[in-house]
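Predicting holo structure, magnesium ion bound.
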Amino acid sequence: LFAGPVDFVKGVTAMANLPPADRLEVCFAGRSNVGKSSLINALTNRKNLARASNTPGRTQEINYFALGEEKYLVDLPGYGYAEAPKAVVEKWQRLLKQFLQGRQTLRRAFVLIDTRHGAKEVDEEIMKLLNKSAVTFQVVMTKADKVNAATRAANLAQVQETLKKHPAAYPEIVMTSSEEGLGIETLRAIIANMT
Ligand code: GTP
Ligand code: MG
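Done. Tokens:
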């Protein structure tokens, strides 16, 4: 699906340093450790393109990846991670909010939610922000391999219920496992079909 090369472009810590807004982009937002970087690796079929890690707070910059010359995939720092120094957390959160509110070419934000936990308060805060900024977002459930079918169904229903409160939400939720490849083709097709 991504015919051309996929390349790391740059990591950004200030809005002023974002690449030129010259093509459509999608971003991956979600709580720390939810699996954003792993999902980008799975989508691009590259093991270590985006750095994933067991340590929450791994991604500390806005990381741009180019799909040929067509699109950008944007890996974001996680939110809701309280262990890092307060000043650092606040800096990330500020940047994250500026980005989600102010990036013209942002076509869709994927909001990742851990299938084990369902939507939390912090997820809803991000959804509200996206609503306010009129950015379409789509929920991607992650780590589906870690739970049984009953938990999957229950937490999917919980997220569906939550989305009713957020009109900017795209109705289709994608269930994924970066580990086992579940939903990866579906998500690739969603991104590939954006023009
Ligand atoms: P931050 O950059 O810290 O915000 O985290 P992140 O959202 O980028 O998460 P990351 O991709 O680094 O993954 C966090 C941990 O979850 C890593 O240990 C991954 O190996 C693991 N993980 C990610 N996706 C999956 C999945 O689909 N299944 C399983 N079992 N583990 C996963
Ligand atoms: Mg990350």
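The CA atoms of residues 68 and 81 lie 33 Å apart.
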